[in-house]
Amino acid sequence: MRLHDWAVLFCGVFLVFALKQDMEHELHEAMTRRQIFYNQVLDHAVMDAAWNMVISDDGTLFEYPRKEVVKRFYDSVYLGAGVMENPYKKQELSQMIPVLIIMENDGFYTVVNEDGSGEKISYEKKYGEWKVIYQVNGLVQVEQESTGFYQMGTYEEVAPLISEPEWESFDSYEAERRKVIVDSLTNSINETMNEKNRIARKTGAVYQFRFPVIKKEEWYRTIDHPGVFAVFQGYPFALSDNRYERIAVAGARLVKQ
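Below the sequence we write its predicted structure tokens.
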């Protein structure tokens, strides 16, 4: 080949490479902008929902309309995403929320439908004949199943009743309390995702929900107070095989007494 031909070939290869790099950069930028947008939508949704949950400065959670909390969450997602008037898009978005949890002091609801239905699960563990229900506000409830004796209070008030290694000191008790609460939440999340995956496989869906990676420190911040916890997973980015994932948490509104 003549020098001119080599020059033309080189320019052509360089142009293709440059265009590919430019397209990849543009795609990455578009995905980043879209991810920021989705983050804002989901963060605002959990904050809007948690606004209906009010706690006093002593940790007491006031009565609240659970179904209204759930409704505000989904309405905020749909409004933020601009799909409130599009039933198809609303259904598509709702299917990407495998887990919505409403956390109370002594337990939580894993919401499975937009109507807010769900069974309350306690942060509970048994130690011999004692049933213990931990609370996120630091209190603990114990019940002796053989006698029906019941007491709720602080660790110092209840500890003399429980002869377990995990209760030998406040530090070991606190570690146990957090572990039981986190285990209760993770077990429910896993069960919910597995059930939704089972249903999805029957319909031929390809994407399978998986348990999100959550660091221990993030869990501990999540369980410090009542609030709303949501997982958004599996939403596809345009022109990409990547899927959007997000965990969003918002605490109940604090009102000083």
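The first strand starts at residue 54 and ends at 56.
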